[in-house]
């Protein structure tokens, strides 16, 4: 394979940045494949693995309060009896030529590196968007959103007349759709008290089509369910400004809100965007077919930190947990192969399906080209999410994807 000369063999430990789906699976895979002979150091800001595919469950988060056990796996338990050293730390910078990572606690040298730092919300330079909206891309952010929604609902009984709280969700992809459906379907009286008023939920899709990339039948069914739940879709216009309590779109229309949620896109975090390598969409690192950074032997990028093209079609792997875990399996194998001086293998991803939650007990999607919806789709989505959690807990690839 071009650019993957197996005779190049760096020395030193394998450092894995990020304990998300991809990073945790890479660390586990390298330890297993090297049989513990290659030292592995896993770095993350928090001592838990967060089940990010389930953070759209805002109603459950609001009921849970500070108890986040349903959304986290303690890394001390997950990594028990595995040859992986875990370090809590914030990644400040990555020095590829010097083969060192700068953490908030100091430098960490590496022989091999896997970058799996995930992503952050992309605000596209929209004034006020970062300051005046919530997000669900990280556990702490989702907790803040859940607490804010609960507070809005607690106060809703004192709103004048029959007015209900207005919640705006920006972004018509799967995350925005799931969040809007969850908020609209949640029994807020059970959470915030008998005086709570069900919110008016508006989903602003922007210029991209609603649920772009999903089959047409899935999109139609999602529209029907959202309409039934009372969610209003505002389509075709991007947000241009967000002020406290008021949002403006490109045609000049404004929308007052009690709470706004930004689900309009993602980008790589600053340490990834600042790397002196080729970047793709949202600052993601462009990798070769073996998931290695071109020109930097022994350095790999996976998950939401990487732009991964199919070597045959050129199509990009989606930013899903299923794709991240599939990439992690190949990246771990190739990292160990690089350490052993063996040839590297190309990554090929085959999408088996996609599901979008439409509130408790409902979902829609396509699995192996078959459209599923309603409670069977919701059950399948829950099984997939549980399988993801089980797979990272065991260090095995998922059975459902």
Features:
401 residues, alpha/beta, FAD/NAD(P)-binding domain, 2 domains, five-stranded parallel β-sheet, four-stranded parallel β-sheet, elongated, disordered C terminus
Descriptive account of the structure:
The structure is a single chain. The protein is of the alpha/beta class. It folds into two domains: 14-45 and 89-119 and 268-350, FAD/NAD(P)-binding domain; 129-264, FAD/NAD(P)-binding domain, CATH 3.50.50.60. The chain is 30% helix and 23% strand. The chain has eleven helices and 24 strands. The protein has helices spanning 21-33, 58-64, 75-78, 129-132, 139-156, 174-185, 188-192, 216-229, 270-273, 321-340, 374-394, and strands at residues 14-17, 40-44, 48-50, 72-74, 84-88, 91-95, 100-103, 106-109, 112-115, 120-121, 166-170, 200-206, 232-235, 239-243, 246-249, 254-256, 259-262, 266-267, 285-286, 299-301, 306-307, 353-357, 363-367, 370-373. The strands form eight sheets. The chain has a five-stranded parallel β-sheet, with helices on one face. The protein has a four-stranded parallel β-sheet with strand order 13-12-11-17. A hairpin with a 5-residue loop joins strand 22 and strand 23 (363-367). Helix 1 (21-33) packs parallel to helix 10 (321-340) and helix 2 packs across helix 5 (139-156). The longest helix has 21 residues, at 374-394. The protein is elongated, with a radius of gyration of 22 Å. The chain starts with 13 loop residues before the first strand and ends in a 7-residue tail after the last helix.
């Amino acid at each position: 394979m071009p650019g993957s000369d197996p005779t190049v063999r760096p020395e030193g430990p394998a450092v894995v940045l990020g304990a998300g789906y991809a990073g945790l699976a890479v660390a586990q895979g390298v330890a297993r494949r090297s049989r513990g002979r290659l030292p592995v150091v896993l770095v993350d800001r928090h001592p838990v693995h967060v089940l990010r595919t389930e953070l759209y469950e805002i109603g459950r988060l609001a009921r849970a309060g500070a108890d986040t056990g349903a959304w986290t796996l303690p890394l001390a338990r997950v990594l028990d009896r595995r040859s992986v050293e875990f370090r809590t730390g914030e990644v400040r910078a990555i020095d590829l030529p010097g083969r060192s990572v700068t953490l908030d606690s100091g430098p960490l040298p590496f022989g091999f590196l896997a970058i799996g730092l995930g992503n952050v919300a992309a605000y596209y330079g929209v004034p006020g968007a970062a300051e005046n909206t919530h997000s669900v891309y990280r556990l702490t952010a989702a907790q803040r959103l859940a607490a804010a929604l609960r507070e809005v609902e607690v106060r809703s009984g004192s709103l004048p007349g029959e007015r209900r709280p207005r919640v705006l969700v920006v972004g018509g992809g799967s995350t925005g759709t799931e969040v809007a459906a969850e908020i609209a379907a949640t029994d807020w009286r059970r959470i915030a008290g008998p005086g709570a008023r069900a919110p008016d939920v508006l989903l602003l899709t922007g210029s991209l089509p609603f649920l772009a990339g999903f089959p047409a039948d899935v999109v139609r069914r999602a529209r029907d369910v959202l309409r039934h739940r009372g969610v209003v879709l505002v389509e075709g216009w991007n947000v241009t400004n967000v002020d406290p309590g008021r949002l403006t779109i490109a045609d000049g229309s404004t929308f007052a809100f009690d709470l706004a949620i930004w689900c309009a896109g993602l980008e790589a975090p600053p340490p990834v965007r600042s790397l002196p390598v080729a970047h793709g969409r949202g600052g993601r690192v462009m990798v070769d077919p073996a998931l290695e950074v071109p020109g930097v032997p022994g350095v790999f990028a996976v998950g939401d930190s990487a732009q991964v093209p199919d070597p045959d079609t050129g199509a990009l792997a989606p930013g899903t947990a299923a794709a991240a875990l599939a990439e992690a399996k190949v990246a771990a194998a190739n990292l160990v192969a690089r350490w052993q001086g063996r040839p590297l293998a190309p990554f090929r991803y085959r999408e088996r399906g996609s599901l979008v939650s439409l509130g408790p007990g409902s979902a829609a999607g396509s699995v192996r080209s078959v459209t599923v919806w309603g409670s069977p789709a919701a059950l399948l989505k829950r099984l997939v999410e549980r399988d993801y959690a089980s797979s990272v807990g065991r260090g095995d690839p998922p059975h459902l994807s």
